[in-house]
């Protein structure tokens, strides 16, 4: 089988070379001569698979995206041509959930509030929302779960009312982009909804940019920022051509990289590999554990956690532990500096640094309560932390 894979898929060469002739391509520079003979096309969200591309690939039988979202795939065209398609739903769920929690713990420390006293509304309780909900509840944070479409499909799931969402201390968006039907999400948070929120609230968008009306948000912020909630944006309307005038009003900003952990991206590759093997009726011979490198904190980080865990509050210890794995303030600062000089939002995403998920870390924490919280969040605890 002739396979083309995005060169930004971790371990793709190792996964796919045993399944046929596997060649890499760079998003935005897909060679039409390669497409002519391609039978399996493996992409990320930066490659749009539409009728124009399919016209260049007459032998194509299989398309997969190593991402949870699949708005970049024209399902109508794929189905019409009888091409099997697959998306790696849930591959980055933990990474996005960790991003949200990292933002909240840092913001809680910076602004002097107890996260454990807050209520979080999770809007969209699919792979990401369910993971976030589980992590929040595991450490005793109250969650309001809002997902009417899921409630219609799953009798066991009871969705909150939207009015309850708007009263929550923190609102975190994790819906797909749906433009029509009974439950559209495009501009779910438009001017009329945004105006009901207040400065004591936090609004996070880590799903699709169009779920939150960026133009309306900018207009309201310009009018009276003091009456608006704190806003954390990982996803922006019109990516990669985002409205940079929004940046000064955003509390934490990032380049649609909430899900860009090494595990999240590699898990996407692994899931595509598994589905392609099923498509070809081949046995699975590789697993994610075959590739992920061993992770360890630096000596400096280890010493810092040792020092802080003896005397600080539980929230401080948890926050500092999270920052050893991922510091949103660093991403935010870099993003602002980069976007002040460049329009290359896509390039920033492509060259994003390696970030590991919390279960990769093994840490020693003296404070038993903090160690318990970190254990619930997925950190591995060294023996001397017990």
TrEMBL record:
Pfam families: 2-Hacid_dh, 2-Hacid_dh_C, DUF3410. One of its GO terms (molecular function) is 4-phosphoerythronate dehydrogenase activity. Residues 111-246 form the D-isomer specific 2-hydroxyacid dehydrogenase NAD-binding domain. The keyword NAD applies. Substrate binds at residues 45, 67. It catalyses: 4-phospho-D-erythronate + NAD(+) = (R)-3-hydroxy-2-oxo-4-phosphooxybutanoate + NADH + H(+). Its main location: cytoplasm. It is found in: Cytoplasm. It comes from the Bacteria. This is Erythronate-4-phosphate dehydrogenase. It comes from Glaciecola siphonariae. The gene is pdxB.
